[in-house]
Specification:
By secondary structure, the protein is mainly α. It contains 7 helices and no strands. The radius of gyration is 16 Å and the shape is globular.
């Protein structure tokens, strides 16, 4: 990568991180119903992760994968610190699969593997830290189907937008 390409990737990554972080902060500003909030914010975050891996590379996308759950923890959206590692791993798995060139793999495997990773690692963390059964159940439910849904919507929206951005010469 040349210096110009590195600078361009860094600026894009910063932009995608800012958009995703602002989307996460919307929870604090707008009193949306929880399901709408989760679907909207999760879709935007996953869209930004796709854009980061496609437009900046895996290294910058990985940094975003780490920073976003840290922000969520600081905002009070993750109940315990070890969940930062769980969400980081789920996001990283999502990015690793989303970087595949075949679109069907992005649509099928990226959301599925993210949801499975989040669900299973949440169970491990809850058992490891002996969290109450009700909290474990609530966390695992929120890390299952809702995460798969937002990841699927995020990949689909990113693919549509990326195609338009490429056609217009922006990316």
């Amino acid at each position: 990568m040349t210096g110009l390409q590195k600078n361009r990737a860094l600026v894009r990554a910063a932009l995608f991180l800012a958009i995703a972080a602002i989307a996460q902060a919307v929870r604090l500003l707008l009193p949306l119903p929880p399901i709408i909030s989760m679907l909207l914010i999760g879709t935007v975050v996953n869209l930004c992760l796709c854009f980061a891996v496609w437009g900046c590379g895996l290294m910058y996308a990985g940094m975003i994968c780490l920073l976003l759950p840290l922000f969520a923890f600081m905002q009070g959206h993750l109940p315990i610190l070890p969940m930062v590692a769980v969400v980081f791993l789920g996001n990283l798995v999502f990015c690793l699969v989303a970087q595949q060139k075949k679109r069907w793999k992005q649509y099928v495997f990226a959301p599925l593997l993210k949801a499975v990773t989040l669900w299973s690692c949440t169970g491990i963390v809850c058992n490891l830290f002996r969290l109450p059964q009700q909290l474990k159940m609530m966390l695992q439910v929120s890390m299952g189907i809702p995460q798969w849904t937002t990841a699927l919507f995020g990949v689909a929206a990113a693919a549509l937008l990326w195609k338009r951005l490429r056609a217009s010469g922006i990316v």
